[in-house]
Amino acid sequence: MNLHAREINEDVRELGELLGEVIEAQTSTEGFETVENIRTSSIDYRRGDADDRDDVERTLDRLSPDMQDIVARAFTTYFELINLAEERQRVREIREGSQEGVLEDSVTDAVEKLSERGADPETLEQVLDDVLIEPTFTAHPTEARRKTVKAKLRSVANDLEVLDEVRLTDSEQEDIEDDLAAEVTSLWQTPQVRDRRPEVTDEALNVQWYIENVLFEVIDEVYDELEDAIDEEYDGEIDVPKLYEFRSWAGSDRDGNPFVTPEITEETLERQRDVVLPLYRDRLKELSGVLSQDASNIDTTDAFDERLEEHKEALPGVASEAEERYPDEPYRQKLKLMREGVLRVGDVRSGGYSDSSDLLADLRAIADDLRANDADVIAEAHVDPLIRKVDTFGFTLAGLDMRDHRKMHTDAIAETVDREGIDYADMDEDERVEFLTEAILQDGQIVDMENVDGLSDDSARVIRRFRKLADWQREFGVDAIDTYAISWCEEASHVLEVLFLGDQAGIVDLPGYCGLDIVPLLESKYALDGARRIMGTLFENDAYEEALAARNGVQEIMLGYSDSNKENGYLAANWSLYRNQKRLAAITDDFDVEMRLFHGRGGSISRGGGPMNDAMLALPNETVTGQIKFTEQGEAIAEKYANEAIAERNLEQMLNAQVRSRYNALEEPVEEIPEAWEEAMETASEAARQKYESLLQTEGFVEFFEQATPISVIENLNMGSRPASRSGDRSVEDLRAIPWVFSWTQARCIIPGWYSIATGLQAYLDDGGDVETLQEMYEEWPFFQTKLDNASLALARTDFDIAEEYAALADDDLRERIFPDIRQEYEDTVDIVTEITGRDSLLKREWLEQNLDRRNPYVDPLNLLQVRLLAQSHLTETERRTLRLTVQGIAAGMKNTG
What we know:
mainly alpha
């Protein structure tokens, strides 16, 4: 069976030709020929048909500012279109793999693997009961494209889908092709560069779009496939519980972003509720069209009748309307009352659902009644999918996490209790823990949360936020906003401070009630190395012990991949995270606390990116409790969730990995790692860390970074609402991890993804180690294999011919002292990685190599043009716009920012 009418080469060729026609029509024949000359010359060099890039360089040197703009727009637009062609190819492979039954990492594959390994129905049910997957969408500024541009690209993607999957008449095909030409023309005429920074509301709306328009639609498909697979492999009845929950930081993450105000957070909560409730009303209306059963043809159960009568009593006026309109149709009467109950959520009128659990109970009553009347097929096709949606999205669409820097809470408490004659600022750590514990456990308030007079602006904002948080939980439900992360948490008192503020605001009432999961974000080496000190102190603390008990004994701990990497380098950071995850598992196990790890991953390799399912399968068994949470950021959100088929595939891969990982953890609770492997990593990571630190501490390194990358452009790119640095100081420590990685990626010198690996592994070899052990580690240890494969991808994306062009922008003495070391480390890392993996090339998958080969000739001109613009001391407005556009074009070409 042929599922598709096209293939990727056809899409790439036709989109490229269409763009060429648009360029010629919208600019001039000269503009088209200039772009075409640069394109073909760049391809000739990459294919080896030209000895150098002289043709490209000469053409770029002759360009006027207006022609530079045309060239930058041409290659940027090309990548936007080719990314859609590659997306379409991913969909083809998913559909064909599913049809042929060879789709790896699917939900069906996971169930089959567990069955093959001897998992009985009870074990599978236990695994599923343990699993909860929580993708958490952040507003971190790594999405370079404008919302308007993304909307036009979705229209192009939809046209490609129709051409590929629908049998069309000649006339219909011509109409689609005309529409494609119109969309590409409109895309060309639309400014690619934002003229203002997006506001926090824009970021929240962006996240909301993916949840509302894609995830809401596909979530029940994943459950359907899982239930079908279970029915195929297992005879016994296995209840599938809730497996996913979506969360968001957009509109609630205050850390480093002064624009996230209580008003913005409240607006986000209101809007998300206003979005999800009409979706339920629409589905209930559709359900009413299906459930037209007459009372004479069914025998409703007592349980259903009871719920119907209760609902009639709660809404007598609506009940009369329902009985008049549907006199002998009990399901339709019930659904009419349910629609009204949803309509009145948050309303001043009575009769609205108090929370989503009541709506769920009604839906389950209908499903059970249908099954009691031998209408299982109707329940499965029409009611069960809505049950899954309500169970997943509730009345909140996505629960919000709050976050702020630990210093904000410390200062707020110091200022507020100072008014009561308590000198918190001068207390040491033990004194602070003792004071906070006693204050939380005692009856009555210590501080007046209504009075912010005399407080600094930051402290007043913290107090007001906690006061508002109590209001939000009353208005929208505790589940709507019940998590508070503390960035740069380094002491137990930093966690107790949030508990204290929650207690003073009425969010916490111990013993018995705690409306917050308080999440320490461990990101510095000091915090990670001190994990037992921090968490042990908390677990032995009387107040915190009661708070944990009120939260079902689950402790969420967030690990910061980004800043850990920026501080320690790729190899040392990842080994530290691995060791400390095992350490945290041991600590929580010692105190009989269930741990939920929250992985603060970014889109890039250096910030924890890479295939999510591989990362999940590589986690230490001790840490796989079943519950897992991880961030989804920037351009990775669009790549994973813009297309329904790809979004469903990502959700399936997550579930596949988590089900298998949890089963592995049950079978082998403690992952036994050979001592020789651990010793190899200890030696290698320490040497790698020292090498990385020596680079950052090299005199003039910050100046070299500023001169040899486009960091100054990125900081002003209007990508996100959050500032690029924490304080405005120019230092690596102060710079946020995203622009740090973004800058090196633009310069095609992705040192955050590989620098110091060779030095580290060579130190192990020099210390008596052998390559055979490293090769064994790669073959048999998922952690080591995943980290080396991800580093290989960063190495493959690095191009030192281009990186040298950027380095030439730096002062001669800086370049001569710093760049040769970077180049040597790159070459040594390529050599040792390929020796360990046993591959001739860096990349494990052939399609990745083809992807890079297809992209490199088109990224190169953007890099070379960017270098020319960076070299100029004064730029016209057109040139400044073109420079910003090259950043977006390279990001699209590399499919990565930060």
